[in-house]
Write a structure and sequence with these properties.
7-stranded mixed beta sheet, lipid metabolism, 44% helix, N-(1-d-carboxylethyl)-l-norvaline Dehydrogenase, domain 2, Rossmann fold, 791 residues, alpha/beta, 2-enoyl-CoA Hydratase, Chain A, domain 1, NAD+ binding
C-alpha cells in the first residue's frame, strides 16, 4: 500500500524543503513548492524562487536531471495556498519554531483533502505539540517524516507517529518512502531528535571532545575513524566540514536543552574549541574552511588542516598510524574491530577507537526503548543516515556482546539494564537466525522477535545459504531466483569483468537453452554493478606482450554479449552505482534494463586510451543513429552521429538513470527503480513479463554506417577541439578511431551493415590503441591514482 500519492505539496522552500521537493520530483511525482510571501517588495514569489534557485545549483545535484524540475510548481502562501487542496501528501518544512508550525497546521487542516497525509519534517520539535488543537481527523493522519540531508542521497527516512496517528497511515508512509522515494524507513518515537540525531550527536560530540582532551590530531582521528571501522571516508572531522559545523553544533545544543533527564547530557555539549571555530566562521565546506581548507600549491590541490591553537591552517601531515595496516590485514569489519579492541591498552590509536566506540554503543543501549522499540530501527538509523556499515547493535554483535559488556564494566561504562537481562537469560547476541529467519532481541518484550522483512527485497546471500547457488567461481555465480529465473551475479574485485565473469556468463547462456529456465537477470548486491574490464588483467597482458590473448578475450566478451542479445530467453540487467565500460555494454545488449535511480552509466574507455570494444560503440551506432535512419530514411545522419560520437569520445557518464536515458544508454521501455534494494526483485518480474511469447531479435544488417563524408565531419570536429586546446593530440587519435567505427570503417558510401561488422572494427581499433605507449601511460595512471591521465 502506498496510499495513492501522486501530488505532493511541500510547505517551506528552505534547504530541506526545496531538496525534498526535488527528490519527490525525481521519483516522478508532481510537486507544489510553497513559501511565505515577503512583507516588502512586489514579487510575492521571491522567497520560494530563491529556495528553488539554490536547489537548482546544489552540489551534489538535488535533481536527477534538469528536466525533472518541470514537475515542480512554485508559489506563495498568500496567493497559492489553495493548491494544498490538490495534494495527496502535505509536507511542512518551515523554520524550526513551534508557533509558526502550529499556525500552518491549522491552515492546512482547513484545506487538505480528507484522505491526504499530513506530515512535518521537523528534526527536533515534538510532533504532538505541533498537532495540539487540531481535530481527531487531522491527528489520525499526521506524523513526522524526517529526511536526512541531502534527501536524494541519504537513505534514511525517520517516520515519527504520535499516539493519535493511525497505524495504517504509518505503514502506508513507510511503504511509500521505500517503494516510491527509495528510502529506508525507520519508526522513531516522538522524543527529542528522534533516533539518528540523538545517537549521532552523542557519538559526534564525544568523539571530538575525546580527541581534543587526549592530544589526538585531526589527521590522526580521520585516519582511524573512516572505512577502517566501517564509517565513510569523511571519518570524523571531514564529516563535520561536510555537514557544516554550525549544523552539528546547533543540533547538539538544541538536544542538550531538550533532554534534561538524559544521564549523558553533558557529553552532548560542544567542546569550547568548536564554539570558537563557529565564531570565526570556520564552518567547513560552506564557508571554504573548517577543520580542513582546500588550497593550491605548486599547481596541485592540497588540503591544509586547522591548527587548534592558532586557528590558522597549516599543511596536513601524513600521520604515522601503523595499527591501521595491521588491522586491515585482519580482513572483514568484525575481525578488524576485535583486533583494535584487543590492542587498546598498548596502542593509543586503538585506545581512541575503543574509548569512543564503547560509550556510543552503551549510550545506544541506554536510549532503548526510549527512542525506539527495536534494535533494527536504531541500527538502520545509523547505517542509512550516517552511512555506517553497521549500526551500534550489529557492531556490538561483531565484537561479542558478553565480552564487550565485561570490557565496558571494567571501564565504568554503564549499559542499558535490558542488555544484562538478555545475557542473564542465556542470550548471547542481539541478532540471531532460526529456521532461515533473522530474529532480534526486543528490549520491550525481552524476547526474540522477527526482523521486519521487505517483500520487495531479494537477498542473494540468503538464496546462497538456502542452497540456491548453482555454479560459482572466484568472480561470479549462477543462482536460482525461483519461478524459472536465473541470476548471473558478479563478485569480482569492483565487480569488474574478468575471465571468471566471462566463463560464468557462458554457463548462464548454456543454461538458458534448457526448458527449466524462462530467463536471466544480471545483477548483484555490490555497491557498483560493474566498473568495466579488469584493467589489471589488461595491464599485465600489455607488459608481457600478450596482445593475442587480449584479442581472444575481446572476441570472447563480444560473443558473450551478443549471446545475451540474441538469447532464446529474455535477459534483463539490473545496474546500480557505477555501470561503466563493459558493465554498460552488458546492459546495452540486454532485452530490458531495470536501473536504480542512482546509476552512473558511461562508456569511459577513452580515459584509459581505448575505445568500447565489447559492442558499446556498435550499440551507440545502432541505437542513436540506425533507429532514426530506419524510421525516417533520407534524413541527415550527422546530428544523430554527432551525439553518439561525443558520448563515447568525451566519456560522458550519466549522473542518474534519468540522464542515462537522455544519453541513449536506457530506452523507453527500460525501468527506473528508486530503491536499489528492490532491483533484483523488479528485474525478475520483468523477465517473467517478457517470457510469455518471447522472441529474440532477428539478426540482419541493422546498423547504419554513414560512410566517408560523415567521418570527415566528425574528424573536423576533433580538430576544432584540439585547436581550442579542449582535447590533447592523443585524445584526437582515440576519437579518430571512434569516428571510424561509427561511420563504418573504410566504407565510402552510406549503407546498412551487420552488427558483427562493427564488432570487428572495434576489436581492430582496441588492439591498435593497446600498442601505443600513451595508452599504456593512461592505463597505469588509472591503476595508480584512480583518475584519468590526459597525455
Amino acid at each position: 500500500m502506498t496510499h495513492g500519492i501522486r501530488r505532493v505539496a511541500v510547505l517551506g522552500a528552505g534547504t530541506m524543503g526545496a531538496a525534498i521537493a526535488a527528490h519527490c520530483a525525481n521519483a516522478g511525482l508532481q510537486v507544489d513548492l510553497l513559501d511565505i510571501a515577503p512583507k516588502d517588495g512586489e514579487d510575492k514569489n521571491a522567497v520560494v524562487q530563491g529556495g528553488y534557485d539554490r536547489m537548482l545549483k546544489a552540489r551534489p545535484p538535488a535533481l536527477m536531471a534538469k528536466d525533472v524540475a518541470k514537475r515542480i510548481r512554485t508559489g506563495n502562501f498568500d496567493d497559492d495556498f489553495d493548491r494544498v487542496a490538490e495534494a495527496d501528501w502535505v509536507l511542512e518544512a518551515i523554520l524550526e519554531r513551534l508557533e509558526p508550525k502550529r499556525e500552518l497546521a491549522e491552515r492546512v487542516e482547513a484545506l487538505a483533502k480528507e484522505d491526504a497525509i499530513i506530515s512535518s519534517n521537523t528534526s527536533g520539535i515534538p510532533l504532538h505539540q505541533i498537532a495540539e488543537g487540531r481535530s481527531e481527523s487531522f491527528k489520525r493522519r499526521f506524523l513526522g517524516t524526517h529526511f536526512f540531508n541531502p534527501p536524494r542521497y541519504l537513505k534514511l527516512l525517520e517516520i515519527i507517529p504520535t499516539e493519535d496517528t493511525d497505524g495504517e497511515i504509518v505503514e502506508a508512509v513507510r511503504n511509500f518512502g521505500e517503494r516510491v522515494l527509495g528510502k529506508g524507513g525507520v519508526i522513531a518515537k516522538d522524543t527529542p531528535n528522534f533516533i539518528g540525531n540523538r545517537l549521532g550527536s552523542f557519538a559526534g560530540m564525544q568523539a571530538v571532545t575525546y580527541a581534543f582532551e587526549n592530544g589526538y590530531s585531526i589527521e590522526e582521528v580521520d585516519a582511524i575513524t573512516g572505512p577502517l571501522i566501517g564509517h565513510p571516508k569523511t571519518a570524523t572531522f571531514r564529516l563535520n566540514d561536510t555537514v557544516g559545523l554550525d549544523i552539528a553544533v546547533g543540533v547538539a545544543e538544541n538536544l542538550y536543552e531538550a533532554v534534561p533527564e538524559d544521564e549523558s547530557r553533558e557529553d552532548l555539549k560542544p567542546h569550547p574549541k568548536l564554539l570558537e571555530m563557529q565564531d570565526k566562521n570556520l564552518l567547513g565546506n560552506k564557508t571554504g574552511a573548517g577543520f580542513y581548507k582546500r588550497d593550491k600549491r605548486e599547481g596541485k590541490t592540497v588540503f591544509d588542516v586547522l591548527d587548534l591553537e592558532t586557528f590558522e591552517h597549516r599543511p596536513a601531515e601524513d600521520p604515522d598510524v601503523p595499527i591501521v595496516t595491521e588491522a586491515q590485514k585482519r580482513g572483514d569489519l568484525g575481525a578488524r574491530l576485535r583486533f583494535l579492541i584487543e590492542k587498546a591498552e598498548e596502542d593509543r590509536h586503538a585506545k581512541y577507537i575503543r574509548d569512543t566506540l564503547y560509550p556510543y554503543m552503551a549510550y545506544s543501549s541506554r536510549r532503548l526503548p526510549e527512542i525506539s522499540d527495536t534494535l533494527e530501527d536504531a541500527d538502520h538509523a545509523m547505517e542509512w543516515g550516517f552511512a555506517h556499515q553497521t549500526g551500534p547493535f550489529r557492531t556490538w554483535d561483531l565484537l561479542g556482546v558478553r565480552e564487550t559488556v565485561e570490557g565496558m564494566d571494567s571501564l565504568g561504562i554503564e549499559v542499558g539494564p535490558w542488555v544484562k537481562e538478555m545475557l542473564d537469560a542465556g542470550n548471547e547476541s542481539f541478532y540471531k537466525t532460526e529456521d532461515g529467519r533473522e530474529l532480534q532481541f526486543s528490549p520491550v518484550t525481552k524476547q526474540y522477535e522477527p526482523v521486519r522483512e521487505d517483500p520487495m527485497y531479494v537477498s542473494l546471500d540468503g538464496l546462497r545459504e538456502a542452497g540456491k547457488e548453482l555454479e560459482r567461481n572466484d568472480s561470479a555465480s549462477l543462482l536460482d531466483l525461483g519461478d524459472g529465473v536465473l541470476c548471473l551475479e558478479f563478485h569480482s574485485k569492483g565487480n569488474s569483468i574478468d575471465a571468471g565473469v566471462t566463463e560464468m556468463g557462458y554457463k548462464a547462456l548454456e543454461a538458458l537453452k534448457s526448458d527449466e529456465w524462462v530467463g536471466l537477470v544480471i545483477g548483484n548486491e555490490g555497491r557498483n554493478f560493474c566498473v568495466g574490464a579488469n584493467l589489471g588483467e589488461v595491464a599485465h597482458a600489455v607488459r608481457n606482450g600478450m596482445l593475442d590473448e587480449v584479442g581472444k578475450s575481446i572476441e570472447a566478451l563480444q560473443k558473450l554479449l551478443m549471446g545475451f542479445r540474441f538469447a532464446p530467453k529474455p535477459v534483463v540487467s539490473a545496474p546500480k552505482g557505477q555501470t561503466l565500460g563493459g558493465g554498460l555494454e552488458i546492459c546495452l545488449h540486454s532485452d530490458r534494463v531495470v536501473a536504480a535511480g542512482e546509476s552512473y552509466m558511461g562508456l569511459v574507455e577513452a580515459g584509459v586510451g581505448l575505445i568500447p570494444a565489447g559492442g558499446g560503440t556498435k550499440e551507440m551506432a545502432r541505437r542513436l543513429v540506425s533507429r532514426p535512419m530506419s524510421t525516417a530514411p533520407g534524413s541527415p545522419a550527422l546530428p544523430f552521429l554527432q551525439k553518439a560520437f561525443e558520448t563515447i569520445a568525451m566519456a560522458k557518464v550519466s549522473a542518474s538513470a534519468v540522464e542515462a536515458r537522455d544519453l541513449g544508454f536506457l530506452e523507453e521501455d527500460d525501468r527506473m527503480v528508486m530503491n536499489a534494494d528492490h532491483l533484483i526483485s523488479a528485474a525478475k518480474r520483468e523477465v517473467l513479463d517478457l517470457a510469455d511469447g518471447y522472441n529474440p531479435p532477428e539478426r540482419n544488417a541493422n546498423v547504419y554506417a554513414s560512410g566517408a563524408s560523415a567521418r570527415s565531419a566528425l574528424v573536423m570536429g576533433i580538430r576544432t577541439l584540439q585547436w581550442g586546446r579542449y582535447a590533447s593530440e592523443y585524445d584526437g587519435v582515440i576519437a579518430g578511431h571512434t569516428a571510424k567505427i561509427l561511420t563504418g570503417g573504410d566504407l565510402t558510401l552510406p549503407q546498412w551493415v551487420s552488427e558483427e561488422y562493427l564488432l570487428g572494427l572495434e576489436k581492430e581499433a582496441f588492439l591498435k590503441l593497446l600498442k601505443n605507449e600513451k595508452t599504456h601511460e593512461r592505463i597505469e595512471g588509472m591503476l595508480k591514482t584512480g583518475k584519468p591521465v590526459r597525455n
